[in-house]
Specification:
Elements (H helix, E strand, L loop, with lengths): L2 H14 L6 H12 L6 H18 L1 H12 L8 H26 L7 H21 L11 H11 L9 H11 L4 H30 L5 H25 L6 H17 L1
């Protein structure tokens, strides 16, 4: 694996993980379009770990509240932070279960260039519809269990490369009536258990296969993905406070059409 390949993978992963444009779709397409070999589990884990560190840092105040909610919880009368943690659990579980099932059946079941193209295109159009139709500006402090479950069920679609985990969860959040910033915030927080589960499984696989890991390459990948993710999160959260998801939707439509043409 060349250093250029590593840099591209780390930066693309970092930028696209939390934007509604699909990181997995881009990472599947990079080797196909560039003629590069698959970057392997170690680099995949390092890139996702960098993204995980970025979201933990950016939402450190939210996470501190959740930790405090767990340590001070009253099971008879759970506080709002404890309830919110429960909603994150509800929203994350369907994807973790479905992802485990997919791994046992066939991990590469949906890794098809034409399917990625359609998922990219259709996902962008659905996000556009949900964003334009929703005028309410609900806050996450008023979240309901049914909304968390709906977002969790939508998130299963993210197992299809191109659909975008961020895109489908934001779409569901908007359909439930949450503001753009609140829908994006919940989407990014649900990414934490999903990424942790995926990295945990990949680490187990890596150990089983006994693959050699370059400390320098993995640390470089982690750092680059961390910086790219932190920049992408900061940019998007500032952008949607003042504008819509239109630039991301246009990008997805154009990318989807180009990929369909190439396919």
């Amino acid at each position: 694996m060349t250093f250029t390949h590593l840099v591209v993978v780390a930066i693309v992963q970092g930028i696209t993980e939390f934007l509604p444009v699909s990181s997995s779709g881009h990472l599947v397409l990079i080797p196909n379009m560039m003629g590069w070999p698959d970057h392997g589990l170690a680099i995949d884990i390092a890139a996702h770990s960098g993204s995980l560190l970025a979201v933990l840092l950016y939402f450190r105040k939210d996470i501190a509240k959740l930790v405090n909610g767990v340590t001070t919880t009253n099971l008879k009368e759970p506080g709002k932070d404890t309830k919110f943690l429960g909603y994150l659990f509800i929203a994350s579980c369907p994807t973790i279960v479905a992802g485990a099932a997919l791994v046992m059946i066939e991990p590469n079941l949906f890794r098809n260039a034409e399917l990625i193209a359609w998922a990219t295109l259709v996902g962008g159009l659905v996000l556009n519809i949900s964003d334009r139709l929703t005028s309410s500006q609900k806050l996450l402090e008023n979240m309901q269990g049914s909304h968390a479950l709906l977002i969790g069920l939508f998130q299963i679609l993210a197992l299809i490369p191109g659909a975008s985990r961020s895109g489908v969860t934001i779409t569901a959040g908007r359909l439930c009536g949450y503001s753009r910033t609140e829908a994006a915030r919940f989407s990014m927080l649900t990414a934490i258990p999903i990424i942790m589960a995926a990295c945990g499984y990949n680490c187990f696989t890596l150990l089983q296969e006994g693959q050699r890991v370059s400390i320098v390459l993995t640390l470089t990948t982690t750092l680059l993905a961390f910086l790219a993710s932190l920049g992408a999160i900061t940019l998007m959260m500032h952008w949607i406070k003042r504008a819509s998801f239109t630039p991301f939707i246009i990008y997805r439509v154009i990318l989807g059409l180009v990929l369909l043409t190439l396919a």
